[in-house]
């Protein structure tokens, strides 16, 4: 086992850890707390993305009331000696797994429309929760019976620190989006409307900011401009790519000397899109990483976003039921080549299908969020309809979920749903 | 070999075929020309989607000047005895292949921004063409050297006839989109702007309409309301799903008595999204289909779009280089959870990457349109950025396209590009 | 479609074909009837291995009485210009398929112990037959219900002509084996004993010899020493490798000027080992091949047997039930690291297992011979027991064949079995 | 993490562990040291199969001089409450991995012909050793450069205790084999000949016997008849099946009340056949197992050997170079349907091939023993030649090992080989 270079204690408060504390903002000046040479291998541990707010119980109010200002709790930054802007930082994910003897479960949540929302929040406005058992890599849930499969573990979030210039670019463009929305909500496609609607972006805030080992005076100032960790951006970040599992190699753009790499937000398994938002099987975990550098890699390879080579450790599935969606909203409004809407419709088709097999809609939503479904951009040019497909692996179910069976009327219980949506 | 129930002659004009003529509009009243019982297996042949307008030569003007009013040339309609609205028509694709002794090549085109446009038309405004050899299922192109792979053949277009009611719904919602665009072009996300911009939708037109065996008098009237075949819709249609290859089983919603199933627009291979628009390897082909019915299947399975179970005949790839994109436009504009833009950016990353290996941008575009790349809806909830990924299979190349190689300066020629964009 | 360079007529006698006749012996002097340059692509057609002796009916006596002196009916020889001894002939299998409009079925047979025998002939001494429908690549049989799968088509037999020297080496070593057996039957491991036992090898014979376009006078003399086509040898030959399907590339050693390549004995699908002997789904078929040469390839690559790179066209299976066998005979005799016996035992385990699902033993045998089971040399060093495994793909069955189901008592009929074993 | 029910200390002597000691014989009376109910999940740890005799250094004499009387060191027995003879014990392998912080390497050895021997001992009579680094599941070796891959971890050995009756059957048949060999060495096929030849079987011996928690007086007596753990037998045992990796479910026959299940001999990776004998990447490891029972499963499923369903966690490979072998010995002797010899020849072809890429023969041997090569029983009926194939995954190499490259003259060093074969 490689040396544990960043260690967490799931029983301690997330902001009062025995060693270096996790941090939760992107800023070039957050000091590195781990040092690595090219060629080094080390273990990094990370808390779950809520820092322990969701526990193994049957209380969905924990999801409804989750404090989203502090997320995520990242491991790092790691300074890689010799890394310079323009390089690519090569990161091999040699192994990952649960912090077994310290945190033995995962959770999936539907956020309340009043707090977080999500892809299908207008269909599922109330918070809900399911708890998942981790048997090695095999996952199952008392809240979603008859589903049991080998998960595809991965970090939802990983990337290098932005430069000051890049950070300002992020802030500027996201502020501009919020302004557009404030001026004319209808100008923002794909956003649910209504009083409790989730924000279109999360601007910098000092509230809940954890700036790592930064000097407290500087930290306050930096937090005022530091980027939130919710969205993925061109450095990677919270991209929630389910395929970054064991054996993958990622090349991350470097923007500051030493790269200042960090990661976190592990998922025992996730479907493409992470459509439940808090939607993968969220967990605390470790990862063994090996670092290397590609000097001037961004120019040499012509990229300014991460690229990666997926591993070969599966799980592999062969048999799928696949659903189609096009860019027409549920209300019948025709959108122009809108892949987001197309994937929504494919997801809703899959949910309605699963309801014919005895699941509730919320259960079906949690299935799509956790099972490694393949969400594909199948067609993007046939005006006006984009076509997205969602492929559901049959092997994740302990019964035959094929169309030939014409469904099943077995009662399969439910996830835990909040009855009082306002908390 | 099953009986050829719909035969084409690639050397005859597309609208003057020896047997029943192909048709190119969706309308409930177009008469069936083939009859099938549940359980029947038959062979259907189809012209390429342009009806032979693009030939095996080095002239890209054929693509620039293509007549888009007549596309596509569909085989059918097939009346399946006993099919009723609400049923699902089960269609097994037992085999497909080129009309070998009659049409032995495929083509890929970049449409002119003045005629068709496409996903990246503002980056590649000029028409271009590449010709592909079909060696069995193995494809290669003199215009894109050092790429050679086993393709994933499939019909780009398949579905049952709409009911009159569904047809009107289509027409209404697409007209509404065109009106919105006419009033305020900026309200339509993802649409390129400029004088020569492609239309946001294609309304019914009698021009170029082929109404099959319909009585000429009725045909003219029907054509005025018949839906164009360009977009996919909830019946399937032109969904361009690369995974519908040999061995797949599709369940199509039935809207009219007898189902009136049709298909066409075959591709020797395609990448997810078909980003070149005329973008797969377009070809004339045959398919052997087996029909069956699931009575009341739409209600029993809770679906009103096609669902399918993919086959197992590959080709399978294991090694990929994967590119990421987020919903920020190339100009730096922040979009809200816009998967279309995210996939554009991932595609552009891949194109820039391939340029480091000696390809031109147009060649790279044709590679992404034809190689079975996996385009994934990786993240759709992390506001404001959707994340899409594009996974390029290394096995499609005859050299090592891995990041480790740091590119190659080999000259790899070019596709044929129009020098005069206006024709 | 490439030019048909070797054509067959399944309705004509196998030795009186319209063009060049198939041949059935290996000899350096059989003249080439097709010529190819390196880089050429062509179509070759071949009769089924019995030349049409087994027909689509319910008469198993055709298998019992099959004339084995004439098999197999090979397409070729093909002279590849420039090929010299020591080269490797590179052959790409671009496409294959049934001669659809001329022969639309396949067959599987259990040979009689009196005529041919086979791997499990002491368990299944009577001849039996099953007829298989070919729906594209999907196969099924009225004699083996509830089994339906996409097959893995391949030529059972392919290779270049031996040199005179190699031919003599073959004859010498096989004669020596027969002599050993004649002197002391017990010295020959793995051979069934009894009066009707099949021969341990098939020596040259002029009976039934088809020497292609050889001068009749020379042919008679050559047939006296020409090698039979039953066994595979270091040139390839009848190696019955199920993985040589569409998209594969094989490098065959060249022993004579021009290589004189030939192939035949196509199978719509086969399990590893072809344990029924006449055991794959036997069929007439075509193959599109592309030839190339690797000069001095045998020395450069250090090989003197064929090597190959399998294609990627599947079918792929993910879910298996796997059976184990060790080198102890059914009678309890301990053998020393005997993989043949180990695979026998694994096969018998699988047969007994399938009998719990309603199949007869003969049906189970035909399933193992035709479904692409994986037969593995799992352990070969743990004295005294070799371990072989047989992995049965669940996806080949239309019901759940998992252990969890504990079998099924459904009556599934039977293959056609000869009642009078002597004919 | 499940409770550790059997714990080992790799720094303590293998027969003086802190808790229950490993055992190394099969006997029904060895007492269970772990108890489980059906449905229970637990972690079992095991020493490497030599109990620490081979260390991470460059001394191959450790392999030459290894004491084979004590192997293997098994974890267990586990008594599963309610298990009765005739049941099947269902064992799910939920997770496995190295004892990371306690043993961080693996080893591969070629046994000396004087001590252990092996599949190709007449070609490689001298002992040799390679040491492998375990980076998570990714393995590499300073002794075999340019090979690096994700391994397929598995226990080489697992099974339930035999009944007294079954034990006697084993002893009887293996004794009979030794007697046959003593009387007439030539009657034993596949055995190397010469003064230093390894034994054909290993009879019971009290020397080195570890009888677990058995009373010392009874243990001595039991050891005189207890079966050695070297060979696999119908209970499973040392079957060395590389496919029993994470996610697999095995059904083991039960012969005694409580089943008395045990396992050990973990491999970080192995090729089919484990042709180096000490040939996989040998390691100490843990496994998380879940137990369940199928009452009367042997009769219900018609099996009396283990059956299993492989997991889906890969690694998966798509591109192979495959080698063929037939049942003719290297000396040109024709064998009758001898799959062992066929696999030998395929292995030797692969070794000669790898030598063209700069490896020594011993390195090539270690590659075939450790990389998950697929060893197939391709043909077993075409008298007199069986055909076996060995498929080498290209993805295990850090360079292109395709035939197209025509080899490489790079110097790749060597494994450590003993210079004095006698010690």
Summarize the structure.
The structure is a homotetramer of 423-residue chains. Chain A has 423 residues and is α+β, with helices and mostly antiparallel strands.
Structural overview:
With 423 residues, chain A is an alpha+beta fold. Helices cover 15% and strands 27% of the residues of chain A. In chain A, strands 2, 4, 6, 7, 8, 9, 10, 11, 12, 14, 15 and 21 form a 12-stranded mixed beta sheet that branches. In chain A, strand 7 and strand 8 form a beta hairpin. The longest helix of chain A has 20 residues, at 164-183. The radius of gyration of chain A is 21 Å and the shape is globular. Chains in contact: A-B, A-C, A-D, B-C, B-D, C-D. The interface between A and B is large, with 101 and 101 residues.
Task: List key phrases describing it.
globular, homotetramer, Jelly Rolls, 15% helix, 423 residues, 2 domains, alpha+beta, 6 helices, six-stranded mixed β-sheet
Strand content of chain A: 25-35%
Largest interface: A-B, 101 and 101 residues
Helical stretch count of chain A? Answer: 6
Structural class, judged by helices and strands of chain A?
Answer: alpha+beta
What is the percent of helical residues of chain A? 10-25%
Number of strands of chain A: 21
How many domain units of chain A? 2
Shape of chain A: globular
Overall pLDDT score of chain A? 94
The name of the CATH topology of the largest domain in chain A is Jelly Rolls
Segments of chain A where pLDDT lies below 50 for 5+ residues? Answer: none
For CATH, the homologous superfamily of the largest domain in chain A is named as Acetamidase/Formamidase-like domains
| H/E topology pattern of chain A | EEEHEEEEEEEHHEEEEEEHEEHHEEE
CATH architectural label of the largest domain in chain A: Sandwich
What is the straight-line distance between the termini of chain A? 44 Å
Oligomeric form of this entry? homotetramer
Major beta sheet summary of chain A? 12 strands, mixed
How much is the radius of gyration of chain A in Å?
Answer: 21 Å
